[in-house]
Design brief:
four-stranded antiparallel sheet; 5 helices; 4 strands
């Protein structure tokens, strides 16, 4: 069964391909015929009735042609509309130009009228100004005369007042000078009295310190009488030695003699500076002591 049916299938397939080929050739011929509508119209109608695809293609072409015609109609309508708008725009522009010309003429006339009016007002204002200036000068002259008279009277009064003030000021200065001189005399007297008191207190404290150091000084035996040691001593306000408060500023050349002088000051401290007034203590912040084998010279 399968061997006998194979040739029939092949035959049918070949027939179908041949039919499709004939149809394609026929459609191509019909397409050329559509481009030439004057040839064989009856046969073409018959073929369209026989071929739905060809009918659809022709209908599509008719639709395209119809749309093209509609587009051309719209284009013509748009062109007509544009031409009408252009004409209307030209009319409006002409009307606007006319209006502008008339407005310019009217503005020019108004400017000329305003200029004439302004010139008349300016002339009137100038006349009024000149009249006002004249009146102002007359009033200023009157005021000037009155002011000069008043100024002269005021100057006379001022001179009298100044003379009286000068006399009073001279008396005041004389009195102030007298009071100042009296005050200076009293102050100088008090300063002198205080200086004397301070000098006495300072001298007394120096004597006390001399005695305190002398009592603590042990002179090395057998030293030369020509030896001399000078110490710089720094004290606090309480009379105590400051830190590093003893310095040998001039050595005797004998270390034992120098050391004995330093020890004498260290043993004597603190000194009774609190007995003094604060201003008096300031004299003892820094002292110089000179040690000789015979005596201690403050």
């Amino acid at each position: 069964m399968k061997a006998s049916s194979l040739p029939i299938s092949v035959t049918l397939a070949l027939l179908m391909h041949a039919l499709v080929l004939v149809l394609l050739v026929w459609q191509g011929a019909n397409t050329r015929t559509l481009k030439q509508p004057t040839q064989q119209p009856i046969i073409q109608a018959t073929m369209m009735a026989k071929d739905p695809a060809l009918a659809r293609r022709e209908k599509a072409q008719q639709e395209i042609k119809k749309r093209q015609q509609q587009e051309e109609a719209k284009k013509r309508e748009a062109q007509q509309k544009a031409a009408e708008q252009k004409r209307l725009a030209a009319e409006r522009e002409a009307a606007e130009q006319k209006r502008l010309v008339e407005a310019q003429k009217k503005a020019q006339a108004e400017r000329e009228a305003a200029a004439k009016k302004k010139a008349a007002e300016k002339q009137q204002a100038e006349q009024q100004k000149q009249l006002q200036l004249k009146r102002k000068k007359e009033e200023e002259q009157k005021k000037k005369t009155a002011a000069e008279k008043q100024r002269a009277e005021e100057e006379a009064i001022k001179r009298r007042v100044e003379a009286r003030r000068e006399q009073e000021a001279a008396k005041q200065r004389a009195e102030e000078q007298r009071l100042w001189e009296e005050s200076e005399r009293i102050r100088a007297q008090r300063v002198a009295e205080q200086a004397a008191i301070d000098a006495e207190a300072i001298a007394s404290m120096e004597s006390v310190m001399f005695d305190m150091i002398s009592s603590q000084w042990i002179r090395p035996p057998g030293v030369d009488s020509e030896l001399e040691t000078t110490l710089e001593v720094a004290l606090l306000g309480t009379g105590e030695l400051a830190n590093g408060g003893i310095k040998i500023i001039k050595t005797s050349g004998n270390s034992a003699f120098d050391r004995s002088a330093v020890q004498a000051v260290e043993k004597a401290a603190p000194f009774p500076l609190l007995r003094l007034e604060p201003r008096q203590r300031d004299k003892f912040r820094q002292l110089i002591f000179v040690f000789t084998p015979e005596d201690l010279a403050p």
